[in-house]
Amino acid sequence: MVAPGREPSRLETKVKVEGLDFWYGTVQALFAVTMDIPARQVTALIGPSGCGKSTFLRTLNRMNDIIDGTRLEGKIFIDREDIYRNGVDVVALRKKVGMVFQKSNPFPKSIFDNVAYGPRIHGVRGQGELTEIVERSLVRAALWDEVKDRLEINALELSGGQQQRLCIARALAVDPEILLMDEPASALDPRSTARIEDLIGELRREYTIIIVTHNMQQAARVSNLTAFFYEGRLVEFGPTKRMFTVPREKQTEDYITGRFG
Amino acid sequence: MPGAFAVNNYERAIRLLLLGAASTSILIVILIFVFLGKEAAPFVVRPGVGELFSTRWVPVSFQKESFGIIPLVTGSLLITGLATLITIPFGICSAVYISEVAAAWEREILKPLIELLAGIPSVVIGFFGLVVLAPLVKGLFGLPTGLIALTGALLLALMALPTVISISEDAIRSVPASYKSASLALGASKLQTTWKVTVPAALSGIIAAVMRGMGRVIGETMAVMMVTGNAAVITASPLSSVRTMTATIAAEMGEVPFGSEHYQALFCVGIVLLLATFGLNMVAQRVLKKYRIG
To answer: Which of A29, B12, B80, B99 has the smallest set of CB atoms within 10 Å of its CB?
Structure first.
């Protein structure tokens, strides 16, 4: 946890964003976003629908690249490396910056093959090594005990909550340093949501986690830092505790207290 | 209320009309089966079904006729099998290109063109085979003739491709985008994503597409008759001349004495052929249906 009153800038910076503008065609979605996201903390991105928080998240692993007609200005550094400079290896970037999607999206393959997919893509061939990675990833994603006897069944047979944890295991299997989560629990029942939140609490010791959420209580529960986005701008960014108790901006206060959004 | 009653009657009339139309087509299929069975039936009594399993097809002879359909069945299987082997890689690659690689404008041109290919009359494709393909194959393998199983298979592949490409492309395109996102986000390249996620996810649809294509060409007659040499021999060699079930029926039906054993034997061939296409299409239908739901 961040000590009370301690600002994000004092922590080791993992992701540094400078003057980020983003366009879908002619529609600007992000305006001059500047923020330093610290290492091994959970940073929650909150804000009403269409405020640009998901767009922002997807700029961090360049998943917006696959959408036609998008354009980006400004700079994003991960470990001091500009991820948008020419000749950047997107494969290496996405290996380092894992992602979990809103709707769980396991491949229609076995549980084992789902988790082993990433390592295989990145050249791991040995069956022993793969088995070890699969087990370790499933343990970390708190799914191992439920599936260890049936790794060969199709992943689509799992429940929604299990599928989402499988997707987290799949992302962990390539050994990322940063984990992007786009509303990972929004499609799940309360019990599964609680499990995902517990898991995030476990994972934050080893990973830098950036999570988009609609759910203010969730942001308050799982994150150390909160960033409030509104209409494509970063309105306020600070320790979660302070943001939820003494927000500095009027808009933040209005949103948090439920006056809009 | 008389108004409501009138509407009800009208609805009923429409219903009956549609039911009639639908059952007519089913009735026709059944009648075809019955008709084929009726014409072929005497053959079962004399000379007996066993005769069909002999290895020689010699329908006209001064000594002893022989109506073994094995050479015809193997001929059809050989050509269809070869055509499948040729169709699968081309079909899948084309479908992948159209759905995953091609720009929008390329797709606009390619899809209609490929579907146009399906509309070329088979006799015209046969011409092409006879004049262009057969000499090419002959030269390539240094054979005395280019009228062999391989030439027929190439033509059949050409005819199956539009069906295979079109259905495969639909299958590949209906793979959820979330699978691709997941793969890309794990650091997979576009190519890896296509071959390791998209195509496997569409596999059942692709298999159904291939079966549909085969269902279409196993019954193909004209082009095959023109280029395969029509020698009723049992062989597995692509470079040998063969004779198919379809070509046999087409070539001999016109000259056969009505009601003779030869005539009945041809109907037996027809039944086997019908069962084969029926079976292929049914299985393809099953697979397609399952995959649309799943």
So the answer is: B12
A chain contacts of residue B172, beta-carbon cutoff 8 Å: none
Q: In angstroms, what separates the C-alpha of B165 from chain A's closest C-alpha?
A: 23
How many angstroms separate the first and last alpha carbons of chain A? 28
Cβ atoms of A223 and A42 closer than 8 Å: yes
> Phi and psi dihedrals of B44, rounded to 5?
-65, -35
Q: Do residue A94 and residue B184 have CB atoms under 8 angstroms apart?
A: yes
Q: Is B10's pLDDT higher than 80?
A: yes
Place of tokens 């799943």: B294
Q: CA-CA distance, B172 to B161, in Å (whole number)?
A: 16
Q: Do A91 and B187 touch (CB under 8 A)?
A: yes
What is the per-residue pLDDT for A261? 53
Report the residue of chain B nearest A116, measured CA to CA.
B186
B188 touches chain A (CB under 8 A): yes
Domains of chain B, residue spans: 2-50, 66-291
Give the minimum alpha-carbon distance from B172 to chain A in angstroms, rounded to a whole number. Answer: 14
- Among residues of chain B, what percentage have pLDDT more than 70? 96
Does position A259 have pLDDT exceeding 80, yes or no? no
Residue A256, classified by CB atoms within 10 Å of its CB into exposed (0-12), middle (13-18) or buried (19+), is buried
Spatial CB neighbours of B159, under 8 Å, sequence gap ≥ 6? B118, B122, B125, B216, B217, B220, B223
Q: Is B197 on the interface with A (CB under 8 A)?
A: yes
pTM above 0.90, yes or no: no
For residue range A40-52, list pLDDT tens digits in order.
Answer: 999 999 999 889 9
Cβ neighbour number for residue A124 with a 10 Å cutoff = 16
Q: Domain B66-291's class?
A: mainly alpha
- With an 8 Å Cβ cutoff, is B142 touching chain A? no
Q: ipTM more than 0.90?
A: no
User: What's the order of all strands across the beta sheet hosting A42-46?
Assistant: A97-100, A178-182, A208-212, A42-46, A225-230, A233-239
pLDDT at site B292: 59
> Nearest by CB to A105, which of B178, B188, B192?
B178
| Residue A185, token pair as written in the block | 């629990």
